[in-house]
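Hi R.,

Here's the chain you asked about this morning:
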Amino acid sequence: MQAPVSEVTVRDFREDDLRRIYEIEVLSFKYPWSMRAFIAVQNMGAKIVVAEHRNYGVIGFAIFRVERTRSAILGHLMNIAVHPEFRRKGIGSLLLRTFEEKCTSRGAEYAYLEVRISNTAAISFYKKHGYKIWGARKGYYSNGEDALIMIKRLR
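And the predicted structure, written out as tokens:
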């Protein structure tokens, strides 16, 4: 399907988006988050933004939170996905930029994320956007797979 970025806007999540973002999650990942996980992260203060195409509705999302440590304010990208039919059209980049902008506006100096060590496409995507491998988390995912931690200075 055609979905030029010019026909896509990013907006804050609304409750009636939940079913659609869950569908995108299931289509996107071998080990998807549960519907309960989406609700739980919101209750923990996470924010969700959605990419909405003017003709097709919600076609992607990003979930993040801003974390304050003793020494820094960090933006944590917890989940990002684009519907398979709309990938490689700049929508993931649009969502990633929106995440970074929202974190910067809340005072974050760095953005970070975890990515499956086997997800070479995602690792390449994040590197293209200036993220660098900072470390790893052993057995981070529910199936025991390790995660790479990737980080980017925002300002």
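Residues 16 and 127 are 33 Å apart (CA to CA).

Let me know if you need anything else.
M.
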